[in-house]
């Protein structure tokens, strides 16, 4: 199966991975845009990939709306997740571990 990402709205600057793929692999863009994008890092199924340059402080756009703000510059092909963005919908997400989702702001004894 080919690597595929899906761009939901024409104004989106990210797409969702419909398959997982590795650094350097090419994914076919489907949906509101047709084309290809090369992954700069491993992208897991269901995660976002940048389709264009997103400057620090700029909106992350998915569904045609801003879902968050870039906390650093993001290049086309980069994985877009909590390590490079602040969510508009879940401010606490910034304190969650990127891989496991476990809270980092609570100390368990």
Tell me about this structure.
With 109 residues, this protein is mostly beta strands. The chain has a single domain (4-95), classed as Roll (Archaeosine Trna-guanine Transglycosylase, Chain: A, domain 4), CATH 2.30.130.110. The chain is built from no helices and nine strands. It has a six-stranded mixed sheet, with no helix packed on it. A three-stranded antiparallel sheet has the order 6-7-9, with no helix packed on it. Strand 6 and strand 7 form a beta hairpin. Residues 12-86 form the SAF domain. This is Hydrolase. InterPro entries: SAF (IPR013974), SAF_UxaA/GarD (IPR044144), UxaA_altronate/galactarate_dh (IPR052172). Keywords: Hydrolase, Lyase. GO terms for molecular function: hydrolase activity; lyase activity.
Task: Reconstruct the topology from this structure.
Layout: E1 4-7, E2 14-17, E3 26-31, E4 35-38, E5 48-50, E6 59-62, E7 65-70, E8 79-80, E9 85-87
Domain SAF: 12-86
GO molecular function, one term: lyase activity
InterPro entries: SAF, SAF_UxaA/GarD, UxaA_altronate/galactarate_dh
CATH architecture: Roll
Q: Tell me the major beta sheet.
A: 6 strands, mixed
Proportion of residues in extended strands? 25-35%
Number of domains: 1
Q: Which class in CATH terms?
A: Mainly Beta
Shape: globular
Instruction: Count the DSSP helices.
Output: 0
End-to-end Cα distance, whole Å, is: 46 Å
The H-and-E topology, N to C, reads as EEEEEEEEE
Record keyword descriptors for this entry.
109 residues, mainly beta, Archaeosine Trna-guanine Transglycosylase, Chain: A, domain 4, 6-stranded mixed beta sheet, 3-stranded antiparallel beta sheet
């Amino acid at each position: 199966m080919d690597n595929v990402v899906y761009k939901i709205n024409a104004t989106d600057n990210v797409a969702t991975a419909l398959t997982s793929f590795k650094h350097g692999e090419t994914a076919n863009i489907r949906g509101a845009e047709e084309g290809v994008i090369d992954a700069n890092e491993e992208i897991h199924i269901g995660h976002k990939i940048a389709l264009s340059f997103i400057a620090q402080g700029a909106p992350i756009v998915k569904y045609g709306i801003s879902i968050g703000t870039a906390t650093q510059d993001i290049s086309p092909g980069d994985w877009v997740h909590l390590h490079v963005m602040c969510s508009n919908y879940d401010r606490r997400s910034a304190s969650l571990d990127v891989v496991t989702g476990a809270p980092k702001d609570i100390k368990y004894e």
